[in-house]
Design brief:
Order of helices and strands: HHHHHHH
Largest sheet: none
Distance between the termini: 31 Å
Length: 186
């Protein structure tokens, strides 16, 4: 797919604004595009910088947390680390992209985020007893949040990777050519 030099900046600005707004504006708990944006960011921007492309959307987390308020740095490390892992998985799609593979990584990323961040909450906070039953309670009480984050990641991941697939495979261009041709026939 041929891109103009402005295209990556427009993609970045649009996704940055969407992810930041989704974290800052009122929304259902954990139903945001952040996971999908991190995964896509790692995928898309690794073509411009193999070494640092997967870090493209780290500033979204920092900027929105600066406005929302920072929290326990150890929990932030688990949250940021989980999102950065999603971005790395996105970067891994570079040479072997398909919409199906992208969506499988979205699901795996959501699950990893759930497991890692809730383990960190259990291990680092005093909210749950540090026993097996406390760990089970932590995960059980977090299931509604997992459903919301998985739903958000799937919805926004399908939209973002779907739009990329349509553009990448020229479907949007072919459709607009057909529509233009049909218009001229009228």
């Amino acid at each position: 797919m041929k891109t103009s030099s402005l295209t990556p900046w427009l993609v970045y600005a649009g996704l940055f604004a969407a992810a930041a707004a989704a974290r800052l504006l009122p929304h259902p708990a954990d139903f945001t595009p952040v996971g999908a944006v991190m995964l896509f960011g790692g995928f898309y921007f690794s073509q411009f910088s193999r070494r640092f492309g997967w870090l493209a959307f780290l500033p979204v987390l920092v900027a929105s947390d600066a406005m929302l308020g920072f929290y326990d740095w150890r929990l932030m490390f688990a949250v940021y680390g989980s999102f950065l892992l999603m971005a790395l998985w996105g970067a891994g799609l570079r040479g072997n992209y398909s919409f199906r593979r992208a969506m499988l990584r979205v699901i795996a990323g959501s699950a990893t985020f759930f497991v890692a961040t809730n383990f960190a909450v259990w291990a680092l906070s005093s909210w749950y007893p540090h026993t097996l039953s406390g760990l089970v309670a932590c995960y059980a009480l977090a299931l509604p949040f997992f459903r919301a984050s998985l739903s958000g990641d799937l919805l926004f991941g399908a939209a973002i990777f779907g739009a990329y697939s349509l553009a990448h495979y020229g479907i949007l261009r072919k459709t607009s050519i057909r529509l233009t041709h049909a218009y001229h026939l009228l």
